[in-house]
Known about the structure:
CATH class of the domain at 572-717: Mainly Alpha
Amino acid sequence: MDGLNGFDADLGYLALALPFIAAVLAPLLTRVMKSHAAWLLALAPAGAFWIFLSGLREVAEGTVHRFGFEWIPSFDIDFSFRLDGLSLIFALLITGIGTLIILYAGGYMKGHKDQGRFLSFMLMFMGAMLGLVLADDLMTLFVYWELTSITSFLLIGFDHTREKARRGAVQALVITGGGGLALLAGFIVIREVTGLTSMSDILAAGDVLRQSAAYLPILILVLCGAFTKSAQMPLHVWLPNAMEAPTPVSAYLHSATMVKAGVYLLMRMQPALGDTTLWMTILPAFGGVTLVMGALLAVRATDIKITLAYTTVASLGLLVMLIGVSSETAIIGATLYLIAHSLFKGGLFMVAGSVDHGAHTREIDKLGGLARSMPVTFLAAMLCALSMGGVTPFIGFLAKEEIYHAVEYADPYYIAIAAAAILGNALMFAAAFIVALKPFVGSMPAEIHDPHEGELRIWLGPLVLGVLSVVAGLYYGVYHEFFSSPMASAAYGEAVEIEIGWVPHLNLAFALSMATIALGIAIYVGSAALRAVLSRMLAAIGWGPDMGFDQAMRGLVRFASKVTNLIQSGRLDYYMTTVVVAVVVALFASMWLADGFPEMPTIPQIKIYEWIVLGLILLGILAVVIAKDRLTAIVSLGIQGFAVALIFMLQGAPDLAFTQFMVETLSVVILALVMTRLKLSPADHRPLREKLPDALLALAGGAGFGLFLLAVIQTPFDSTLSDFFERYSYAIAHGRNIVNVILVDFRGVDTMGEIAVVMTTGLAVLALIRIRVGRRGERTIDPLEKTP
């Protein structure tokens, strides 16, 4: 460890970018190198792992690295990152296990036609998760948070030809994406109420959040984000259904990384939000229920991956429950268990894939006797299961002992938490050996033909993780100094020292640990009977959160269909009426709420030729209203435009007048061309009772715009912008015509957009003009006529 004493921020940027760079290269490399590309692609997470490992000693000594740059200064948003004990250990887990997973995926997906796309998605997720745990700015964290949801959606639905895979992907996206929106709202409330914009600000602010009047909504919104991501009941259903993804996804996203994003968030914000009555009630309640129910459902399952998925749900519940307790010992227990869980659960998921790969089934009842054909996989499975079962000297034992130390108090609160921990851990002990022992012992069923050990890349990952589980336990001094203590210190908010070792001590915690193992063995022996009882109970209950999700989605689709049919009726007159009503309401409401109605102006002295122009405008309006056919109305409509152009000319703006003349001429010509393809008569065949509401609405719109313009005119003129353009039009743009300079230089992009709109409109007009009647005698469709 002596050489690991210097983290470089510039290399930190590289570490964040390496997975994304590899993701871009993955399809090309896989096309060229086939499955061997995984060896090369694994160098990206391995390189990032080494970069983060270089800062291990500094962080262990209490150094906190912050690096980043301004992103959106006007909103005080930075693209900033924080490397401390919590984020560093998460980064090492993400990149270290990620390296093994990329190699594992190369062997597991060998020969798959879309292996390059799969590896690209995996690496993109890795980069997103890495950015999430390192992000310091709240908005940066949210961007990475949602990116993990998007990339996990792509991975869960990778085999998009299967309906279950598509459903699992959508379910995960809806639940975790919805939680992400709640988290965004929570971050916005934090920024608006307290002015805090980063995790560093929040951690340095002490009790600011806890003492804030907005503490309750902040807490609820943050917990919604964390609970959806970390699959707390009843929002857990997406995680078991995500097992439709290929096994490398399950081993990485849904055991070691993504599902722990919510736990990471709770650990990160525990010093600022924790240690309150609400925190210490809500988190243990949800976590305890999730722990026990998840563990029961794990024993009930018969598919290895589903069993492991529910134990992951249970483990996440255990972590949330411990974080909710908020004591130093509980946070230490959560830290030890989180690291242990990442190792043994990632390994067991890879074992599940190895069994499926070698025996072509994951059904526990159809497996047996595989130890002789798959000895390395069996060894890896037992190492991981012993750690998961909390057997010494594995790090799972250290975690379980510390958990029981945290709850060894004669208080109803702690007794309830201890009971949930003992029952949940016992059930998970049984589930661990159901997965790691039953498929490998006994006689081999006749249905299994030619079981075989996978290649190096398939068994290397679980074996390494299993060995690390015991090595970390044996060398617990080094493990605590560099890994668990820095992580627990960052999560607790104060420096803590962890001393627990693999040598048992005769105390209450050890007694509870032994009771857990004894109960776990009993559950393992009676697992078949317990599974039958649980199956009957679930069948009797029937409805559950998973079915509820489907019902909610169907209800949402029906509601959206009704709303769409209501507001998208297909009638142009409805759309136009809605738009005009909204404009009229906006005009009058804004003036009324702001007390901005204008004073009635005095009538100025108007010259005779100005009266003539005004008369032309009124004559044009009258001609449009009384026109008997549409062509006459179109031509009459141009009268107003030409009259306005005359006003511009009389007021000394010939260039503006010329533009107005051109626009009106082109508008009349284009409309006339289009109308020649339609029925030009009659202009409006409706009775007076139907015309009157439209006429009143039109008058209201005209009155609203008139009053609004009067209010604007009566406002004192601010010449700042005019002075700016006058001063810089020639100096910067070398143009003396200020209007032209504004259009072409200062707002050239806007002008280009307007040109694009005109061009698009012209293409639409051209398409409309080219419409021909199909068959002789067929009725010409008039889009301006109301549908019945």
